[in-house]
Write a structure and sequence with these properties.
By secondary structure, the chain is of the alpha+beta class. About 55% of the residues lie in helices and about 15% in strands.
């Protein structure tokens, strides 16, 4: 499962990004979104908003999304099956890791 796939799955789920699994590795979310937009032509929208950091500083957050009609078209074109296959693969990976930890 790639970081690109994880980001796309969150965007297609149309759910709050705050609940998504954290990205692992050195690639930033912005770089992944840029690649999805440029290389794969996903029409990802973004908006930046002021927010407070945990330490009290003022900062900006960027929220990424897909328009509802884009999500609907993607899901109709096989997205449901792709999302289900990701869910099954993630569950299998969790079970395998759990088994390794308990052995």
């Amino acid at each position: 499962m790639t970081a690109r796939g994880a980001v796309l799955a969150v965007l297609l789920s149309n759910e709050d990004q705050a609940g998504a699994d954290p990205l692992q590795g050195r690639v930033s979310l912005a770089a992944i979104v840029r690649q999805l937009k440029r290389k794969y032509n996903w029409p990802i929208e973004s908006g930046s908003y002021p927010a407070n950091a945990g330490d009290g500083r003022a900062t900006w957050v960027t929220v990424y999304s897909l328009a509802p009609e884009v999500i609907a078209a993607a899901m109709e074109a096989g997205g449901h099956d792709w999302m289900e296959s990701r869910r099954v693969a993630k569950a299998a990976k969790r079970r395998a890791l759990s088994k390794i930890r308990h052995d």
